[in-house]
Task: structure prediction
Amino acid sequence: MMTPLSTLVVAAATLSSLLQVAATQAATTAPMLSSYFPAYTEGATVAWNQTKLAMYFVDITTKDGFEIGPNQPLDGIKKFTSQAYANGAKPMVTLGSWNGSLYFSKQLSTPEGRTKLASQLQNYLYYKEFKGVDVSWLYPAQQGIGCNTVSPKDTDNFLKFLKTLRGWLGMGYLISIAAPPGGFLTGNGTEHVKDYSEWATVLDHINVMTYDYTGPWSSKTGPLSPMHSCASGGGVTAAVKYWTSSGFPAEKIFISIPSYAISFTLKSSTLEKTYMTDGDGGTFNYSSLIYQSFSSIPKGEAADSNEPTTDGCGVVTANYTGQWHYTSLIKEGLLAHDGSKGLKGYARYMDGCSQTPFLFNPTNKHFIAYEDAASASIKAGFARDNGLKGVTVFTSEGFDDTVYDAIVTDLNRPKKELESGGATGKSDTPQAQAGGKTTKPSTPPPSSKQPQDMPKKASHGAGILGKMNLRAR
Result:
C-alpha cells in the first residue's frame, strides 16, 4: 500500500511529466493562419479549410460603448460564428480600427469606464458566441484618423483596461490587440513603451500590423510589407525584433500579410535602380527597382471609385485609392492565374531586398505593389523559423487558394527544412528580377536607414479598406 508521502511523490512526478509534455507540445506546435473577415463586404469569405482563427471585422467605439459598424448584415455575426465552429476555427470580433477608435481614450480614462466596457464586451461575446476580442486602438497617445481624443495617459490606461478585461473574461476567452510594428508611444507621444512583459501576461497574442509601409502618402513607391527594412524604413524582421527584444514572447506574435495591392502612376516609363543594404544588420548590398517617383494615384480595381465619401471624422474626399485585391489582379487580367507573370503589358518583378513582388506597365506607367504566394510563403517560413504564433491575413477576401495553400505549407514545414533552403516560395519564378544581391554597386549605396517606428499609415482599415469599404465609417 502506498503511503501518503509516496502518493504525493508519484502525483508530483506525474504533474511534472504532464507539464513537460505540454511544454514540448507547445514548442512543436506549428504556427497557424488567422485572418480578418471584412463583414462589410458583400460576398466576402474565409478560407475555413486553412484558417484556425478568424476575426469579425469590425465593431466600432461609440460614446457609450460600441456598436456593429455600418454596411454589415444583421445576421452576419451568427453566420460567421457558425461557420467558424463548424470548421474547427475560433471566431473573434475586432473592436476599433482606423475609423472606429474615436472614443477609446475617453472610455478608458477612468476605472468606471474601463469596467463598463469590459462588462459590455463580456455580455457581447457570450450572447454572440465569439471566442474572444481583438482590440484595435489606432492609436493610444497619438493621433490616428485625425479626430480621435488623445491623452498622454492613453497607453497606461490601455494596459489597465486589458487587465480589467481579463478579469471579466477569465481565461476562457481570447484577448488580442492590433500592434504597431514599432510599438506604442506613451507620455507626450515621443517615447516608446520599453517593456511589454506585463502586456504579455494578459494577452493571448498580438497581430503586428506589418503592412502599409507604402501608400499614397509616401514620397516614392515601395513594398507594402517588406521582409527587410531596405529603403522603406522598417519591415517584418525589424518589427519582430522590436517586440521580442521588448519582452513580448515570440510564440504570442502574429505577423500580418496584406491581401490588397496599391497602384501608382510613375513619372517615368523607365524603372530606376536604388542601391541599399537590407537595413536589418545584413552585409549584402542590393539593387532595387521597387522605389520609384510617382505623380498620381490611378483608378484601382473595378470597385474603386472617386465618388465623394465621408470618413469617421466627417471629412469628405473624392479621389481614387488605386487599390486592388490580389484576386482582382487575376480576375481583371493583369496577372496570370498562377501569379507567375504579368499580362496586358504588365511585367512581374520580385524585389530582392523586400522580397515582395510588383507589376509595371511602361505604356501607362502604372506600378502595382502587392503580395502573392511567393512573398506570403516567405513570411510564413519566417514565422515558422522564428517560433511565432503564425501569420494573419488582412483581409480574408483578397487572396485565393493558391496563396493560402502556400502560406499553410510553409507554416507547417519542418524548421530544419527551412534552414536547408527548402521553403519560402522558391517554386515561383519571377518573370523579371527587380534587384538582388550585388557585391559592388555601380554607385555608392546610401547609408542604411534605421527602421522607423511604424509604417507611415499602419491603418488597420485605412488602406485597401479605406474608400472601398471603410472610409464611410
About this structure: The chain has eleven helices and 23 strands. Residues 311 and 471 are 5 Å apart (CA to CA). The first strand starts at residue 32 and ends at 38.
